[in-house]
Write a structure and sequence with these properties.
Elements: H1 3-20, H2 24-33, E1 38-39, H3 40-47, H4 51-63, E2 67-72, E3 75-80, H5 83-99, H6 101-111, H7 122-130, E4 134-138, H8 142-147, E5 154-155, H9 161-164, E6 173-177, H10 185-195, E7 200-202, H11 207-212
Parallel strand pairs: 4-5, 4-6, 6-7
Antiparallel strand pairs: 1-3, 2-3
């Protein structure tokens, strides 16, 4: 094999991986799987795609080993292959925000415009939790919480937040977190909490970034 042939073969494989993530829905599937293992049916419902289309997109991701699957009876469940895929997703988001003006504009208009207080970083939140200064709520769906969450966090899915507000401490700062820096659940939760007169802000990162930073993660029993 010549040097030229080796390079051509390598770049062909790099291109193969790039094509696998060139579809926005495939990126969304990876983001969802970064939270928890899910069945094809659950992924189809979450993304608004039909079952057949969802399965086809997952198979594209599986062929380049970004996801893995297992069968349980008639149902097929998918998960990310490993943390290398998660690191790739985080790097992709950061590069897109750095290079694409549209990403930066959406981030400013939707997320930063809702931040009356500066979002708290993962390291600072970890220190505050150690001192007992902050209450953390996980506003993702409960199955994502069960798969992994910040130690001590309460599971209060966004749709149920209104029914739990009266039980939350008015004298303590509340930090809401969800799937990542571009997840809309935590900003919406913070708005609801502030309208109720509570001290609230959001975690800048999500559970996947928290885990990649080497911070502790709990898994719900059962």
């Amino acid at each position: 094999m010549t040097g030229r042939e080796a390079k051509d073969r390598l770049y062909a494989q790099f291109g193969r991986l790039a094509r696998a993530v060139s579809n926005p829905k495939r990126i969304e599937l990876l983001e969802l799987l970064a939270q928890a293992e899910r069945s094809v049916e659950e992924l189809a419902a979450a993304t608004g795609m039909g079952l057949q289309n969802t399965s086809a997109q997952l198979q594209v991701l599986a062929r380049v080993r970004l996801v893995e699957s297992r069968r349980e009876g008639k149902r097929v469940f998918y998960r990310l292959s490993d943390d290398g895929v998660l690191r790739f997703l985080v790097a992709l988001r950061e590069l897109a925000r750095d290079r694409l003006a549209e990403v930066e504009q959406v981030a400013r208009d939707y997320f930063e415009a809702r931040d009356a207080l500066e979002p708290i970083g993962a390291g600072e939140l970890f220190r505050r939790l150690a001192r007992g200064q902050t209450l953390v709520i996980d506003v993702r769906p409960v199955e994502e919480y069960r798969a992994g969450h910040i130690p001590g966090a309460l599971s209060i899915p966004l749709a149920e937040l209104g029914t739990h507000i009266q039980a939350l401490p008015a004298a303590k700062e509340i930090v809401a977190y969800c799937r990542g820096p571009y997840c809309v659940l935590a900003p919406q939760a913070v708005e609801i909490l502030r309208r109720a007169g509570l001290q609230a802000r959001r975690l800048r990162e999500g559970l996947p970034e928290w885990r990649l930073a080497g911070l502790p993660v709990e898994v719900a029993a059962g």
